[in-house]
Amino acid sequence: MGAGDRILVSACLMGAAVRYDGRAKPLDHPLLARWLEEGRLVPFCPECSAGMPVPRPPAEIAAASGADVLRQSAQVFEAGGRDVTDLFLRAAQNALAEAQRSGCRFALLIDGSPSCGSTRIYDGQFAGLRRSGEGVTAALLRRHGIEVFADHQIDILARQIDRLARQIDGEPGAGDGAEGLSGLPS
Ligand code: SF4
């Protein structure tokens, strides 16, 4: 395993009780257990790294996506109306720094979070409705070339890792079928 094969993982996905509601959201999947044994996984909670407490009020990106927050054209608010945009930006920067320090080429993040979401996030109305979009951390990681996968895309991530390993080994045809992967929903 090369250092670049490491995977930044949402800490709550690994069983850490760090979500806004004080709970974890563990993913029971044999691939995760295997990668853990292989030393590939780098568990990280962006929001905790920025000093957000557990539990904490829920937060949503206001009618926009993480990339808009990075462009400073959208904000993140707690349910009570407090603007927490700066905290979410710091969380994303901490996650990027950890991914780069640890040599992570990939990230496997819980979907739906205003930080870790990568295919869907809540719509900013605190009404329990989700729409297509990504969180602030996912957007920043992607901007810096780290491939981000949602928890429900773990099998796609595994195929991507295998494909890259075969490419490195020089196996003919290892690039076949790769085109669609770079276009995964974001
Ligand atoms: Fe989990 Fe990410 Fe939220 Fe931390 S920021 S609790 S890792 S979803």
Protein traits:
single chain; 186 residues; alpha/beta; 4-stranded parallel beta sheet; two-stranded antiparallel ribbon; 7 helices; 33% helix; disordered C terminus; binds iron/sulfur cluster
Strand content: 15-25%
Coarse morphology:
globular
Major sheet, described briefly? Answer: 4 strands, parallel
- Count of runs of 4 or more consecutive helical residues: 7
Average the pLDDT over all residues and give the rounded result.
Answer: 91
The low-confidence parts are 176-186
Helix content: 25-40%
| SSE topology string | EHEHEHEHEEEHEHH
Q: Within the largest sheet, what's the order of strands?
A: 2-1-5-8
Q: How widely separated are the two ends?
A: 27 Å
The hetero compounds bound to this protein are: iron/sulfur cluster
Radius of gyration: 16 Å
For the secondary structure, the number of strands is 8
The secondary structure category is alpha/beta
Task: Tell me about this structure.
This protein is of the alpha/beta class and 186 residues long. It is built from seven helices and eight strands, in the order E-H-E-H-E-H-E-H-E-E-E-H-E-H-H. It has helices at residues 30-37, 46-49, 66-70, 85-102, 136-143, 154-168, 179-182, and strands spanning 6-10, 41-44, 59-61, 76-78, 104-109, 120-122, 130-132, 147-150. The strands form three sheets. A four-stranded parallel sheet has the order 2-1-5-8, with helices on both faces. A two-stranded antiparallel ribbon has the order 3-4. Strands 6-7 form a two-stranded antiparallel sheet. Helix 4 (85-102) packs across helix 5 (136-143). The longest helix is centred in the middle third of the chain and has 18 residues, at 85-102. The relative contact order is 0.16. Mean pLDDT is 91; it is low at 176-186. Bound molecules: iron/sulfur cluster. The site of iron/sulfur cluster has 13 residues, from helix 2.
